[in-house]
Design goal:
There is one protein chain. This protein has 562 residues and is an alpha+beta fold. Helix content is 31%, strand content 26%. The protein is built from 16 helices and 30 strands. A hairpin with a 2-residue loop joins β13 and β14. α2 packs antiparallel against α6 and α10 packs antiparallel against α11. The chain is elongated and about 80 Å long. The structure holds adenosine-5'-triphosphate and magnesium ion (3 copies).
Length: 562
């Protein structure tokens, strides 16, 4: 393919708004362009890479026994009302009205749509289990879209859903998906870990996230290279210490508020709680239930308190209110699409909370989705043991280390959550109606692409793994004014294309220096430069990642590249 005929707008300068390497390089190398905040266009190079990642995902999904389908982005609000998520999903859900003022959501995830299809079409246990997936654009109006493709407001996801007549059957499909995910991320040549994740108050028990190890990751994981243990520390951040109540309350009193009485009430409640050794309280703020936790650095979680300052009424939630909040899925909206802003109580914390109204301070009881390290010092837990860096892993093999991770995939046993709310049932072999059991499985396809760039780049540009690269070979004519260079290049282009090799042919009227720089930036694994020795049939063959280069005669070129 001739580069002169293609749209590959490379940039010398780093775009000002791009903080991360993947964002900078994908823009600079002409793979993507921002259309709006968190909304990107994939240019031809970007689209080629995206397709390769999608193809890996597709092959492994098919192999796991899942079947591809395609669901609409535009989803009627009624479905989301049935599941209850129309009210609980929050501002991340993009909502719109049609010309008749009917309400719709743009799919942030597809549990509702798939469940509505399955409840209508599957009536018998004989059709179960069933695994379906799609690769499609998702919409989430993220509070802070950033880092390019890593956190977009419109992005490509593979989402899969499984339906079962027993938990054993769900376990089987979950394991198949888990294995498929491992193969997918291995085939993307990523350094990743599958980690135990938090299931929130959804009632599901098993859930794993697939985390690409990267300093720019927004999650923190605890793992050991010599053990099979790995967990998202979100699993169990615990408060390790707090100061005397008076000091803990200082930040509250310093902040100006339009409603001094409210603030004083909150301060009193917190004071009281801290005195009793409690670390969190459930408040009713303008009729909204809000959880306030104390911070390890002895302050109070100011994010939540901001809402409280603005409120006109604040009271401590009653036991009944706490229970009803939890019953309504307070804070837990499922693995795909859970907003990051809501505090989620883990199952055991919920139990304790219900018993004591404002508890959750005992060993092993914990809060999740509060921001670890910012909100308090963090330890991870497993089987109610607390873990920190340098500890022996729970299975006794190796020492725990912490690392930052990018969540590229998430598998989740949903159980009967959606099927119950949306009446998805089947007849068992006795002719009796039963609620279906479900699993859901997501991969951020466009995020995975960016994660690959985070792990595969150097000072000069991207260094794509071969199977994901947009092309296999970058062919450069160093001086297009030299007839022998052009004709040898054309000849090589032909030979390579005939051999079915993907080749990007830089036939542009640019200086050699520009071509080399662009080529390094784009990161195609092998480069053939046709230059001074073209008349003898010699070209320079260079490996992008290692920088190794050698002179190769055109007659040996195919042996070298295949
Ligand atoms: P995060 O914790 O990063 O917000 P999430 O837990 O909300 O992600 P899921 O609901 O589990 O995401 O969705 C499945 C997958 O979709 C995630 O594992 C991730 O790879 C991808 N994904 C989620 N949000 C985004 C986004 N804003 N941009 C790109 N990919 C995303
Ligand atoms: Mg997730
Ligand atoms: Mg999210
Ligand atoms: Mg997440």
């Amino acid at each position: 393919m001739k580069q002169s005929e293609m749209l590959v707008p490379t940039l010398r300068e780093t775009p000002a708004e791009a903080e991360l390497k993947s964002h900078q390089l994908l823009v600079r190398a002409g793979f993507i362009r921002q259309t709006a905040s968190g909304v990107y266009s994939f240019l031809p190079l970007g689209k080629r890479v995206l397709r390769k990642v999608e193809e890996i995902v597709r092959e492994e999904m098919n192999r796991a026994g899942a079947h591809e389908m395609l669901m609409p982005a535009m989803q009627p609000a009624e479905l989301w009302m049935e599941s209850g998520r129309w009210n609980t999903f929050g501002p991340e859900l993009v909502r719109l009205n049609d010309r008749h003022q009917r309400e719709f959501a743009l799919g942030a995830t597809h549990e509702e749509v798939i469940t509505s299809i399955i409840r209508d079409e599957v009536k018998s246990y004989k059709k179960l289990p069933l695994m379906l997936y799609q690769i499609q654009t998702k919409f989430r109006d993220e509070k802070r879209p950033r880092f390019g493709l890593l956190r977009g407001r419109e992005f490509i996801m593979k989402d899969a859903y499984s339906f079962h007549d027993s938990f054993e059957s769900l376990d089987g499909s979950y394991q198949k998906m888990f294995d498929a995910y491992n193969r997918i991320f291995e085939r993307c040549h990523l350094n990743f870990r599958a980690v135990i994740a938090d299931s929130g108050a959804m009632g599901g028990k098993d859930t794993h996230e697939f985390m690409v190890l990267s300093d720019v990751g927004e999650d923190t994981i605890a793992y050991s290279d010599t053990s099979s243990y790995a967990a998202n520390i979100e699993m169990a951040p615990v408060i390790t210490s707090y100061q005397k109540p008076e000091e803990a309350l200082q930040p509250i009193e310093k902040v100006a508020t339009p409603n001094q009485k409210t603030m004083k009430d909150v301060a009193e409640y917190l004071h009281h709680a801290l005195d009793k050794g409690l670390k969190a309280l459930m408040f009713k703020v303008d009729d909204q239930l809000v959880l306030v936790v104390t911070r390890g650095d002895h302050e109070v979680n100011d994010i939540k308190l901001k809402n409280i300052y603005k409120a006109s009424t604040v009271e401590l939630a009653t036991e009944e209110e706490t229970k009803s909040a939890i019953g309504a899925g307070f804070g837990s909206l499922g693995p795909i699409g859970a907003p990051d802003t809501v505090d989620v109580l883990a199952d055991n914390a919920v139990k304790n909370m219900v018993n004591t109204t404002c508890g959750a301070n005992e060993d092993g009881y914990h809060f999740v989705n509060v921001n670890p390290e910012r909100d308090f010092k963090v330890k991870a837990y497993h089987d109610l043991r607390f873990i920190t860096e340098g500890d022996v892993s729970p299975d006794g093999h190796g020492m725990i280390q912490f690392a930052k991770g990018i969540e590229v995939g998430h598998v989740f046993k949903l159980g009967r959550f959606y099927a119950e709310k949306m009446n998805a049932s089947y007849l068992d072999d006795q002719g009796k109606a039963n609620t279906m059991i479900m699993g859901c499985y997501g991969i951020g396809v466009s995020r995975t692409l960016a994660a690959v760039v985070e792990q595969y780049h150097d000072d000069n540009g991207i260094t794509w793994p071969q199977n994901i690269a947009p092309f296999q070979i970058h062919l450069l004519t160093l001086n297009v004014k030299k007839e022998e260079q052009v004709s040898l290049s054309e000849q090589i282009h032909q030979i390579l294309e005939d051999a079915g090799i993907e080749v990007l042919y830089d036939d542009r009227k640019e200086r050699a220096g520009v071509k080399f720089a662009d080529s390094d930036l784009i990161g195609i694994p092998y480069r053939i430069s046709v230059g001074k020795r073209a008349d003898e049939g010699y070209v320079e063959f260079k490996e992008r990642k290692s920088g190794q280069q050698e002179e190769v005669h055109v007659s040996h070129l195919l042996d070298r590249v295949t």
